[in-house]
Design goal:
Helix content: 10-25%
Structural class: alpha+beta
Radius of gyration: 22 Å
Strand content: 15-25%
Shape: globular
Distance between the termini: 27 Å
Bound molecules: protoporphyrin IX containing FE
Length: 437
C-alpha cells in the first residue's frame, strides 16, 4: 500500500523499505523553486531553533524523513485508508448532492475527485492552470506525500438520488437505534463520505481544500469533523496508539496477516447481487463518540482498568501477560470474582462473546474546544471497517449498549454508515463499477 516504511504498525499495511536520498525527494518538488524552503525546514530541525534561522538556511536539497516521503498507493484492490497505518491527522467530511444533481453529475465528480486524489497522494499539486480557478492552493508545497490517503464512500441516500436503488445493498439498511444514542441528525449520514488522512496537518488540509473546491456546484458539505492521532516517531518504539482516555486502543483489531482478515473486512465477490459492484470494498461505520473526560479522569487508575479489562500502562489484559496475551475471560481472583469484570468493555466487545463478530477499528481522536457547560468537547471519531456492518458493528454495539462499564463515560453524538467501493484499477475512477453498472 505505501512505498516507504511506516513506524506505527497498527493497523498494518503492506510497506516496502524507504527510498532514501535526494533522488527519492526529487520525485516531489524539492528540485523545483520550492526546494530551498523544504530543505530549510529540515536543517532548522537539526540545528535546533528559530534563532538559527538565517545561519542555518541552506539551499542544498536534503532528503525528506520517512514521515514526509511515505506514499500510499491510490490504485489497488482496496481503497487506501483502510489498512493504512493510523495517520497523525484526519478529516471526515460528508457531502449531499445539490438539488438537480444526479447520476451524470456524480459520475463527473467521482472522475474529477479520483484524478485529483491520484496526484495528491503521489505528492503532486492539484491540477489546473497556474492562475485559473483550479490552481493549487500551495498549502502542501515543500511537503512530501506524508502518507496521504483519501477514501470515498456512498451513503444510503446516494442511491435514490442517482437512480441506482437496484444496486442498494441490504447492508446499507439504516443502523438500528441504540438506547444510549444522542445523535445529531445534522452531523450524521450523508450522500457521499470522504475520509482524508495524512501524517502532516498541512498535507491533510491541502487535500481537504482541494476535494472541497473540486466538488463545487455538485455537492455541498453536510458535516465535517477533524481528528488526530499520535505522530509517527513520537514514541521510542512502534506501538499501538492511545486514545484521549489514555488507553492503548486497537490491540484486539483483526490483523491483515490473519487468515480470515479479508473475509471479515472486505466484501467478497457476489455476482448477480445488488452489491456485486462492491467487491473488494468495505462498509465504514462512523460514530462521533464524546468522552466525558472530567468524569473519567476522576476515576483512580485501577477503576479505569476495571472499566476496560486491560492495564492502562501497557494494555495487558487484567488476567495477566503482555498486551498481545489473549484475555483469559474465565480467570477468577482469590475472592472468586472474575478478574476481567462481567461488564468490562474489552470482554463485552470481544469476538469470543459475539459469535465471532469483528471489525477493524481505525479511529481519529478529536478535540473541538470547550462546550457551554465547561467540559471538553473531545473524544473519538470512531471509524470501523467490516464486510457487513450487521455482522460486525451492530451486534457488538447492541451488546455494549446493554451493559458496557464504559457507557457512563461516553456519548454517541453522530453516526453514519457508508459503502466504500473497492480500489480503482489503473484507468478507472473510484465507484465506476457502481455508477456505470
Ligand atoms: C469512546 C469510545 C470507545 C473507547 C474509548 C474504546 C476503547 C477500547 C479499548 C481501550 C479497548 C481495549 C484494547 C483493544 O483491544 O483495542 C477496546 C476494545 C474493543 N472495542 Fe472499544 N472503545 C470505544 C468504543 C467502541 C465501540 C463503539 C465499539 C463497537 C461497537 C468498540 C469495539 C471494540 C472491540 C471490538 C474491541 C476489541 C475487543 C477484543 O478483541 O477483545 N469499541 N475498546
Amino acid at each position: 500500500m505505501s512505498k516507504t516504511r511506516k513506524q506505527d504498525p497498527a493497523p498494518t499495511g503492506a510497506t516496502v523499505p524507504p527510498d532514501p536520498g535526494p533522488a527519492g525527494v526529487s520525485r516531489r518538488r524539492l528540485l523545483g523553486g520550492v526546494g530551498a524552503a523544504g530543505a530549510t525546514g529540515l536543517v532548522l530541525g537539526a540545528g535546533g531553533g528559530a534563532a538559527g534561522y538565517a545561519a542555518t538556511r541552506s539551499d542544498a536539497p536534503t532528503a525528506l524523513t520517512a514521515v514526509g516521503s511515505t506514499e500510499a498507493m491510490f490504485h489497488g484492490k482496496h481503497q487506501p485508508g483502510i489498512t493504512t497505518p493510523l495517520q497523525a491527522r484526519g478529516h471526515l467530511v460528508a457531502f449531499d448532492l445539490v438539488a438537480g444533481a444526479g447520476r451524470k453529475e456524480a459520475v463527473a465528480l467521482m472522475r474529477r475527485w479520483s484524478a485529483l486524489v491520484r496526484e495528491l497522494m503521489a505528492g503532486r499539486p492539484a491540477g489546473g492552470s497556474a492562475d485559473g480557478p483550479g490552481h493549487d492552493t500551495g498549502i502542501a508545497l515543500d511537503a512530501g506525500p506524508s502518507s496521504l490517503t483519501v477514501t470515498f464512500g456512498f451513503g444510503r441516500t446516494f442511491f435514490a438520488r442517482t437512480g441506482l436503488t437496484s444496486r442498494l445493498p441490504a447492508a446499507l439498511d439504516p443502523l438500528p437505534p441504540f438506547s444510549s444514542d444522542q445523535l445529531d441528525a445534522k452531523r450524521s449520514d450523508g450522500d457521499l463520505w470522504v475520509q482524508i488522512g495524512a501524517d502532516d496537518a498541512l498535507v491533510a488540509f491541502h487535500a481537504l481544500r482541494a476535494v472541497q473546491k473540486e466538488s463545487a456546484g455538485t455537492v455541498k458539505v453536510r458535516w465535517q469533523m477533524n481528528g488526530f492521532n499520535r505522530t509517527p516517531g513520537a514514541t521510542a518504539r512502534p506501538m499501538t496508539a492511545r486514545n484521549l482516555m489514555g488507553q492503548i486502543d486497537g490491540t484486539g483489531n483483526p490483523k491483515p496477516a490473519d487468515e480470515d482478515f479479508d473475509r471479515r473486512i472486505f466484501v467478497p465477490a457476489s455476482p448477480g447481487t445488488p452489491q456485486e459492484w462492491l467487491e473488494g470494498g468495505s462498509y465504514a461505520v462512523v460514530r462521533r463518540i464524546r468522552m466525558l473526560l472530567d468524569d473519567w479522569e476522576k476515576l483512580p487508575v485501577d477503576r479505569q482498568e476495571q472499566v476496560i479489562g486491560r492495564r492502562k500502562a501497557d494494555g495487558a489484559p487484567l488476567s495477566g501477560g503482555s498486551e498481545t496475551t489473549a484475555m483469559d475471560l474465565d480467570k477468577a481472583g482469590p475472592d472468586g470474582r472474575l478478574v476481567i469484570p462481567d461488564n468490562a468493555h474489552a470482554r463485552i466487545s470481544s469476538p469470543e462473546k459475539n459469535g465471532g463478530a469483528a471489525m477493524l477499528r481505525r479511529p481519529f481522536s478529536y478535540h473541538d474546544g470547550i462546550s457551554e457547560d465547561g467540559t471538553p468537547d473531545a473524544g473519538l471519531l470512531f471509524v470501523c471497517w467490516q464486510a457487513d456492518p450487521f455482522q460486525g458493528f451492530v451486534p457488538v454495539q447492541r451488546k455494549l449498549d446493554r451493559g458496557d462499564a464504559l457507557s457512563p463515560f461516553i456519548r454517541h453524538e453522530a453516526s453514519g454508515l457508508f459503502a466504500v467501493p473497492g480500489g480503482a484499477a489503473e484507468g478507472e475512477y473510484v465507484g465506476q463499477r457502481l455508477l456505470e453498472s
